[in-house]
Design brief:
Chain lengths: 440, 440, 440, 440
């Protein structure tokens, strides 16, 4: 295998170990970012006079050529190389000769790999944030359509009080909004350029990390070379944000599964988003929701994995960190596809309004309001609560009887008018705020 | 046991279940916050006319009386109550009679408990953020004192290149700075008032959640009652930030342990921060660092616990969430004390500068700079790297020989002058930026 | 604070650090085991002549005296001691003078603490195993009572095929049986005595670890002193078994919650095992099940915590391990109480047989059997599956029509007669096997 | 896409969802097991007369043909199929026509997939157990070679007492032995055949699950169809065993990393098992050990993932479980390769005996024995400990002085003779026990 080191090595690397340590396959998605980073690095080295103009021109021209080919799928890492950086240098050398190794001046793989990783992460965070937003938009549209649909709100999975279906859908809108803000926050953490930190100590060459940062579109260069070569906070932050977003998705998934049961019957997934059974011909299963709920486990597992990897690592770079990328890649793929799948399943689903209405007409859902009426009539709260409790068991107090006819499901929903409440008017105002949130 | 419900219940609650579900002990630290929340709620109910002036005056006066007693340790939750909220109402009732239950008008335990929790969390986040800052200040002072102390920088725990000890210490300063920013960010997530969301749907009383939020010093009221009663994002965010901060602490702990070995010998903990052995009289063990490293595991475990609890929960409140508080309390206690312990151990430790200097004078640490000199003399980078590799194995090329005397450890450190590098001048500038960071 | 070390120490230990490292409170439950271990150790030392007969007699008498007092709650660790071992020695010294420190001959705290821990763990494993068995017994009794109750079996939470309620209950019986076997297996892993391993290397005294092991009722003594002082495999095994057992409990909890909904209506928890709402008078919530499901998260978290603590620890003992005990204690307490709570809730619950029967009479549940009839009549399986699928959508093939009346829910359950199947006869045989399993 | 269901479906499945739910790629390694399971199922169906002799002969012949082709890499799943089961049936149908679907009689994908999974797991467990054994053999050989090499034993990473290098190596032998026993135990848990459980309830066909189990070499058939279709205990057990084995590997990896430092200098990895730096020509890094230590995180993460997936799932099969296989496959691959890599690195490493001996000659390592001598001379243990502690600080008591010359490193090691101790004689006996252990 071609390597970027080996002057001291008499013996060939063990094949078992080469296989175990190779990262070329998982690095592939970093290729365009590695070329970008090398390009900016050469440009900066040329500006400060470390690489002469002619060499720089040749290197930049060829790096650009390679970038275009990669973008057009005409060039992809292959062959026997340790990682994408080795492949890039080897490919470059095959085109420009020995000056290719100049790209290694004033930097190391330690700073380069994490520069690539951060560049990829920034793009990915923008993409994920858009995926969240698309899902929010779908929920918003569904909420707009179902503002006056009444369903039972639940606590402890017991029917509690009637709410607008739009209110229920918007609850997920706001969870996703917090997720989106966390992704944006993670972007800021990621937006620091490590290039020039070298192996751990920076360089004796007159490099200008601020300039490299600027060329690559980072908000700033690193503060401390020892820190930045082994700083994976941005990856942990992403995994934590991804795990929590998946947890939110898993809650909606749980409800899709519940609502799709014959017993609840509040919802029907489209045939395009259901699965049958190889044995039981009658089945329509809510597999998309089950898969999303299940894959939440893997993203939580990835977060666990990376925290454990970093725990107890001395400064600075240690090879343990190599698995940060496959871990984050897997979590990002799962998050992105889960958001898309859940959004698709929801968008095409049919709500069964009559089933919801029937369930919401359960008189138990008015018990709170009944107690409130008693309080308004002068009975202390604790006593009102007790009287209504007894009424639910069939023992109705004289003071309760006249109030019973004053209450309807409709009045119970309509009566909740304050900010954030489940009533139609309040939800209409909430919808306005939700819409505005997406404009920002 | 006195309960806030039970009108429908004929049978006594099982004693086993009462023990299992009781949260009074762990709730104790919420007591002042529960009183604050009740106070604001009563004040708002009085302003909108739901509680009449006289009742309100009596309730507010007594709640204030209780708050003062709690603050002075003259009153503490006790007796047979399900939780702190039941105790507060019972205590209030013992002082003002049946109107005590008016505090339950227009809210539920579901919104109250998470209001208490958020109020506590906000205070705790300020405290934790200060603890991080104190630790940063200590690292900064140590860095200032050790700017010109040279030590080997490591990668893969192999000596790599010489660095300033200050640079090494500042690497942790920046990790902690990111931790501090995450705590501040988490404060913003927490700063939303749930009171008035009720059990899940808000209330038919003319309550004003915005006013309650204002009275309690929250930045805003909730957007969606269904969401906010089961939203624990702030707790997950805190646990994620705490886990990552502990991971950073565990990295420093690992280095304290390594540096305290006879083999490294770079550091001696003060006797006040070491432990002996019951068997081996010669021992001075770096137990504070080992305990911090170990307790990192428990905080990661708490994060895993809460994510798992929330995963798959349908809307809205489910009792599964009860353990959010003990989990967060334990993590917060561990984080706060670990920061204090690690700061104390570092502050009183002695660096062994001569041992560091001796290790840093290892000629291998100059290999990179030697290769750089060869590159400056016109040898391509790849070839230079190879020649120096061979030189390390005793096979010194003619082109290498004349360069050997041009290099010293001092020049290697001094030569790294760019932003973020390990050289003295660069670190001095970094110190300035670090100092300014703490001023904000 | 009184310590078992300090000859080399000029400076007082920091109070902050003392608080952070103290384990006396959590050690309390180890007290009887520490006394047992000290007793066996002294006995062995006396037998091999290291402690003279008179001293041995005095020490053994006093250790026994203390054990009795501890058992009778007349003596409990208190005061300013690092841990339970320091307290035991101090208490002993207060009764017998300087010879008390002879208990430290030929051992260290490193081997003592893990001896105590294993002794406790063995008792706890027996207790947990019994708790599992009691729960199995309750499920068995419920299954016996409900053999001929028919309910829908579910996959994907969609009604699938009719099953006996007993079959459903027994599914949990077998999960618990595997849990019980894991606890028994863990007992074997735990049943190794570490006493005499000393700090890490054993002792130059002529001790006989095999004898100490025998006196303490362990199956064997340690093989390797370096290994055994930091071996916590037994604790990890227990946490893994506990986590999986809690996961099983959480599955049953999920079903209790589902079945208690108005929508399913298959089950009613007794009032003694339900909770009401402080706001909504109509509520009866399945809180025991929700709490069990939630606490599963904390046990999984404890497992993660300990694995993370041990990961990357060099040999032999490191102080990181101190938190193994609080972690295992917390998990054991949660497991034991959760088993008791879930068993209690199930035992007193009422199944709603008519609701189950009604749901089981859903004709979709016979689709598989309908397809099977078609196959028996000569239609290939794939085509039969397709024809019945279309029939479910209202498009009934001529070949299907005559078969419809041949099928009933009862025949569908009765027809499943092979080993392990859901039919009455098969379940009766299964009940026999389950009963026999508990006899072992 | 060709599917095993769809009679009820009018609309095409969404392409996004098809991609998300497809498991064909990760199922590939199950192909031979799926063919085995189908073969045994057809054989049993034929024996009980459900499939006629001619059809059975044709099906068995063709399934065997396919098996041979798969084994010879002439046939591999491909094309647009949901999973390996769909592909097998389609491939079979292309060879034998409509009777292919007879393989679906009396079973479902739910029982088939977990039969395949268990068959694979059993083979994998044998392989992993052998991999552990090979590693144990290497440690045993190294221990035999290094019986009389003395090194410092450590606690808290502080030098504690001298030990035989063989003793240190054997500590890992015993950890691995416990791992091996856990894998064997897991084999027993896995050795139950689910085939015939169908979707959840078994079948109305006269199938004989005991016979299928026998044909497939399982120790027994399932007890309860509802349980077995969603029982993944064997997978969790494997992940827990794998995680703990990786934790043990990570401990050895940590020591390889420490011992390879210039500061310790106890060990040199072979060049074939080291890595250089792209920047620093002098570097030889212990990357195999770092990678093993890091990958431990991912296996812990996989365990976390699966526990979270199963938590809270109602009976019986839910699609969440689909990710059990990729999770277990990834963990198994990591475990197997990590064992091989660590064994290879250790086998070819060079111990630096002189560096170890020099470190072991540190007089502090004799402090315990010095205190023991004082005790033998009649000084109480506590006082002896104190006197030696002061001696370490340069304050030597008159009673201590004459004892100093009685102690040497050699005598300290030789003097530890009891079972499990670190002395040469004790370790020789331990080696015998270790050898015998591997014979079983």
């Amino acid at each position: 295998m071609a390597k970027l080191w080996g002057g001291r090595y008499a013996v060939k690397t063990s094949a078992v170990f080469e296989r175990y340590s190779n990262s070329l396959a998982s690095d592939t998605r970093l290729t365009p970012y590695d070329l970008k980073a090398c390009t900016a690095h050469v440009q900066m080295l040329s500006e400060v006079g470390v690489i002469n103009e002619e060499d720089a021109r040749k290197l930049l021209h060829t790096l650009n050529e390679m970038s275009v080919q990669v973008e057009n799928d005409e060039l992809t890492p292959s062959g026997n190389h340790e990682d994408v950086h080795s492949w890039v240098e080897a490919e470059l050398a095959s085109r420009v000769g020995p000056i290719a190794s100049s790209i290694r001046i004033g930097r190391s793989r330690n700073d380069l790999v994490v520069t690539d990783f951060r560049l990829w992460m920034k793009d990915e965070l923008l993409y994920q944030q858009e995926a969240v937003k698309r899902f929010q938009q779908i929920l918003l549209t569904l909420a707009e359509r179902n503002l006056e649909v009444v369903m039972p709100g639940y606590t402890h999975l017991q029917r509690a009080q009637p709410v607008s279906l739009a209110h229920h859908l918007l609850a997920y809108f706001w969870m996703l909004e917090r997720d989106r803000q966390r992704l944006i926050q993670c972007y800021r953490t990621t937006d620091v350029c490590p290039l020039g930190a070298g192996a751990l100590a920076g360089s004796t060459w007159p490099i200008r990390p601020e300039r490299t940062a600027e060329l690559l579109g980072f908000a700033s260069a690193f503060e401390n070379s020892l820190d930045v070569v082994s700083d994976r906070d941005f990856a942990v932050e992403f995994l934590a944000a991804a795990a929590l977003c998946m947890v939110h998705c898993s809650r909606l998934a749980e409800e899709i599964i519940l609502w799709s049961t014959t017993e609840f019957g509040f919802m029907r997934l489209s045939d395009a988003w259901s699965t049958g059974s190889s044995l039981m011909p009658q089945k329509k299963n809510p597999d998309p929701a089950e898969l999303v709920r299940g894959r939440t486990g893997s993203v939580i597992g990835h977060l666990m994995a990376l925290l454990t990897v970093i725990k107890g690592l001395p400064l600075a770079y240690n090879r343990d960190l190599q698995d940060d990328k496959p871990t984050v890649f897997a979590a990002a793929d799962t998050l992105g596809s889960s958001l898309e799948v859940l959004a698709g399943a929801m968008e095409s689903a049919q709500f069964q309004n009559e089933k919801m209405a029937a369930a919401a007409s359960d008189p138990g859902l008015l018990a709170t309001d009944l107690a409130d009426l008693l309080v308004r009539s002068g009975v202390p709260f604790a006593e009102s609560h007790e009287l209504v409790g007894r009424h639910c068991e069939g023992d109705t107090d004289e003071r309760v009887k006249p109030l019973l006819e004053q209450l309807t499901t409709a009045s119970a929903v309509e009566g909740r008018t304050h900010r954030g409440a489940a009533g139609f008017k309040a939800v209409a105002a909430q919808l306005d705020r939700a819409r505005n949130t997406l404009l920002v």
